[in-house]
Write a structure and sequence with these properties.
about 45% helix, 8 strands
C-alpha cells in the first residue's frame, strides 16, 4: 500500500473544482487519461464519488464547496496530508444563476439588467464565480508553492471580456449584464491580481474560456459539445514547465482581449 501511495505521489497532482459534471468532469477525464492524478472537487460528495467512478483509477472524489470556508480548509488539509503538494489547480466551479428556472437566456437577461437585477441573485453568483475562486487560491497556494512545476488555470468566459463587450458590433453586446458576464469580468480582474502577485515565482497562471458549451450552466443551450468546449482548458492545463503564463485564451491558443 505504501508503495502504491508513492506511485500516486510521483504523478502530477491536480485539483479540479466543480468536476462532477460539465466542463469540469470532461477536464478531469482528460487529465487522468494523460497520467495525472485528479482530485474531483464536488460540492456534493456522493456526486463527486459517482463522477470519480465513471473516470476510473486516477480520479479521487474530494468534497469541496467553494462558498464554504470550512469545506475549502478541510480539502486543503486532506491534500496536504495525502500528497504534500498540489501541482495543478483548475478553478472551474461556477454558476450562471439561481433564479432562471425554465426561462430562456433572453427572458432571464431581461430580469437581470442593471436597473432591475436582484442584488441577492448578483451576490449568489459572484460568491461562487469570484469570491470562491479567490478563497480556493488562498487555501491552495501553500500547496502549490511546494510543487516544482505548479500551474493555476482559472476557467473564465469570453463574455467577461470588457474590451469585446464594449464594442456595439459584438453579437452578445446587448446580453452583457451584471450577473454572470460581470462575474467573469471580475474573475478576470482577480486573476490578473493573482498573476501580478506570482510574477516572480515559478507558479504559472492562465485564464481560459471554454466554448459556448452545452452544459447545465446555460440550460444546455450551448452550441458546442462538452468535449470540444473543454479543449482549451485541457490544452492549457497540460502545458509543461516551459509553457506560458499570464495568458487569456480560447481554442486554439487564441488570445482574448481583456
Amino acid at each position: 500500500m505504501a508503495h502504491q501511495n508513492e506511485l500516486v505521489k510521483a504523478k502530477r497532482i491536480a485539483l479540479v473544482t466543480g468536476a462532477n459534471q460539465g466542463v469540469g468532469l470532461q477536464v478531469a477525464k482528460e487529465l487522468v487519461a494523460n497520467g495525472v492524478t485528479v482530485l474531483v472537487g464536488s460540492r456534493n460528495l456522493e456526486r463527486g464519488e459517482a463522477a470519480a467512478k465513471t473516470i476510473g483509477p486516477g480520479a479521487i472524489a474530494l468534497q469541496l464547496d467553494v462558498t464554504d470556508r470550512v469545506s475549502i480548509a478541510d480539502a486543503a488539509e486532506r491534500i496536504s496530508k495525502e500528497f504534500g503538494r498540489l501541482d495543478l489547480l483548475v478553478n472551474n466551479a461556477a454558476i450562471s444563476n439561481t433564479r432562471k428556472g425554465n426561462l430562456s437566456l433572453q427572458e432571464y437577461g431581461k430580469m437581470t439588467r442593471a436597473s432591475v437585477v436582484s442584488i441577492d441573485e448578483l451576490k449568489a453568483v459572484w460568491e461562487t464565480n469570484v469570491f470562491g475562486v479567490l478563497a480556493v487560491y488562498q487555501a491552495m497556494l501553500p500547496l502549490l508553492r511546494k510543487s516544482s512545476d505548479a500551474r493555476i488555470v482559472n476557467v473564465s468566459s469570453g463574455v467577461g471580456s470588457l474590451s469585446t463587450n464594449a464594442d456595439p458590433a459584438y453579437p452578445y453586446h446587448k446580453m452583457y449584464g451584471p450577473v454572470y458576464p460581470a462575474s467573469k469580468a471580475a474573475l478576470n480582474a482577480i486573476t490578473l491580481a493573482i498573476m501580478v502577485e506570482l510574477e516572480s515565482t515559478n507558479i504559472k497562471v492562465n485564464l481560459v474560456s471554454p466554448a459556448f458549451t452545452s452544459t447545465a450552466l446555460n440550460g444546455f443551450e450551448g452550441t458546442e459539445s462538452v468535449e470540444d468546449g473543454s479543449r482549451e482548458v485541457v490544452r492549457v492545463a497540460l502545458l509543461g514547465p516551459d509553457g506560458p503564463t499570464g495568458t487569456f485564451t480560447r481554442w486554439e491558443n487564441t488570445n482574448i482581449p481583456w
